[in-house]
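Bench log, entry 3. Co-assembly request; chain sequences pasted below exactly as received.
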Amino acid sequence: MVAGNSLATPALGLIVWTTVIFLIFLFILRKYAWPPILNAIHARNERIRSSLLAAEKAREEMIRLQADNEAILREAREERDKIVREARESGDKIIAISREKAGQEASVIVAKARLAIEREKEAAMMEIRKQVADISVDIASLILRERLTPSREQEKLIENYLKEIDKGMN
Amino acid sequence: MADILLKGRIIYMVLILLAVTICAYSRHPENDNTAGEDEFPVTEFILDHIGDSHEWHILTTPGGHHVSVYLPVILYSRHTGFHLFSSRHISHGHHYKGFSVSAEGPDKGRIVEHTEGYSGNGVYRPLDFSITKIVAAMLVSVIVAMVLFLALARSYLRTGVSEPRGIQGFLEPLVLFVKEDIVIPNVGEHKAEKFLPYLLTVFFFILINNLFGLIPFIPFGANVTGNIAVTFVLAFFTFIVTQISGNRNYWRHIFATPGVPVWLLPVMMVVEFIGIIAKPFALMVRLFANITAGHIIILGLVSVIFIFKTLWVLPGAVVFVLFMYFLELLVAFLQAYVFTLLSALFIGIAVEEHH
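Structure output for the full assembly:
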């Protein structure tokens, strides 16, 4: 029972049925199947694309942040170095200044001390001079008193007086 | 691991199918033993399987009893109007209501009406709109495809945007393939939307009928896409879609090809018209010939066993049939691809914008 003995001759009934079946197939798929399927695939493609973009952006952001961090770190390190250097410099300066000041003060003190010594010395000299004068006057008065007495005893007396003066001076 | 399991399963399935095929075919020689005593009627056997039929033959018992599914016969006779009856009534040369299947002559295999008092020898061919084997097989594959795709659509609607799973994982790459590798490159991104539903439908219609045609038992195994009427309709749809969507440039190219001298235009018009017809004609013949050839080769290789009547050729035949089955599996995809690709190409030419 071969309907259509020639393979190359299309049968009319089959043409009609194929047309009907295909059109129904096309209609139903076009209405109910393709839109949701294509939309879902499209939506997923979009999501994948946007996700990839977001990931790429995040990666770039991270790289940027890392670079930022490094920059900040480098800056901080430089800042630290600077501060340390400055501190050292100012310390050195302070030391230098204080040393200078101390030197100056020391010289002032020395000068003052020298002045005081000088003054003391002068005062002492004046005192000595005054005492020598007093002693001279005393001796002279004593001598004047002894002239009236024998010479032997006078000499002895002068000697005594001198001894007295010596004692008094000490 | 899963891969090996799947491969094993496929090979197992093919072997089972093959076993069924051979069992089914092995009873066939007693069926139409027209050529010689013990001669195996290869040509009839093959043509019987690749052609259309009013009944769906399943097997013939060793006692010569036929097991078939009888399909409805729908006829329109100019003389007696519409008729609807089971093909059981006209099987094996029976006459029913004046109808019978012609056994020989130019109408061999077709239903003829025997009328008295009309012209000729009283044999008239009514219009035959029967649900034949091919129509039934086509209905089965279309229903399966619709169930698949509606389920797919529903799963997308339900799960929304998610990773493909289950049936999605198998069908989605094909849909994407048609969309991104066939339609968009040929029709263009912004026009693809318009033609995608038609081209997707054509692709899956051909693919599922090709694949079901390879399964050798009822309700599959009919040579649907290897029938010229079916491929004619498909090619005709592509032809119609192409002509309807053809823009000004397309028609100008046909009626007034740019850069052609005026006196040559009539010739060019004829050439272009031939081109318009030749394109879908090539589509029609390519699909028909490829699928039919595949069926013929497989059936021929199976026939080898019965021609030689020895078990010694069995391993060789089985190996070759197995090989052909894998090849036909490839061809099933390839021809669906080629048909859709060329349809997209023709439509793409018709809607192309010239700058």
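Residues 265-308 of chain B form the longest helix (44 residues). Chain B is about 60% helix and 10% strand.
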